[in-house]
Each structure stands twice: as C-alpha cells, then as structure tokens.
Design goal:
Radius of gyration: 18 Å
Number of domains: 1
Mean pLDDT: 90
Strand content: under 5%
Shape: elongated
CATH superfamily: F1F0 ATP synthase subunit C
CATH topology: F1FO ATP Synthase
Structural class: mainly alpha
Low-confidence stretches: none
Number of strands: 0
Order of helices and strands: HH
Number of helices: 2
Largest sheet: none
Distance between the termini: 9 Å
CATH architecture: Up-down Bundle
CATH class: Mainly Alpha
Length: about 80
C-alpha cells in the first residue's frame, strides 16, 4: 500500500513537471516565431498577436488539464482500495 502511494506521488510530480516544461518550451518557441514574423511584416502584427494569445491559451489549457489529472490522482486516488 505504501509503495502504491509513493508511485502515485511520483507520477503526479512527473505529470506536472513534464507538462510545465512542455508548455514553457512551446510558448517560448511561439513567442520567438511571433517576434520574427512581426519583424518581417509589421502590418500583420495585430492579427498575429491575436492568434498568438489564442494559441498561448490553448497551450496553457493543455498544461492545466494535466495538473487537474495529477490532482485527481493525488486526492481521489482510484488505485487505492
């Protein structure tokens, strides 16, 4: 029983940690590409900015879904009897 709870805690940490790393890398790459695109065509900056914020919200939403799943496993663990 103790071993299962330890593994669930480890899994929750991995879910949150890897999700945070993936989201931060994704937003960083997207921000860099946004700056490159707005430097090349400044007249499209408003349209690109709106699309960038929508994509940033979707990337963060995917990370927050992972956090919610980790919290589900941490507090309402379906693997315990």
């Amino acid at each position: 029983m103790e071993n299962i709870l330890g593994l669930v805690a480890l899994a929750c940490g991995l879910i949150v940690g890897l999700g945070a790393i993936g989201a931060s890398i994704g937003i960083g790459l997207m921000g860099g590409k946004f700056l490159e695109a707005s430097a090349r065509q400044p007249e499209l900056m408003n349209d690109l900015q709106a699309k960038m914020f929508i994509l940033a919200g979707l990337i963060d939403a995917a990370f927050l879904i992972g956090v919610a799943i980790a919290l589900l496993f941490a507090f309402a663990n379906p693997f315990t009897l």
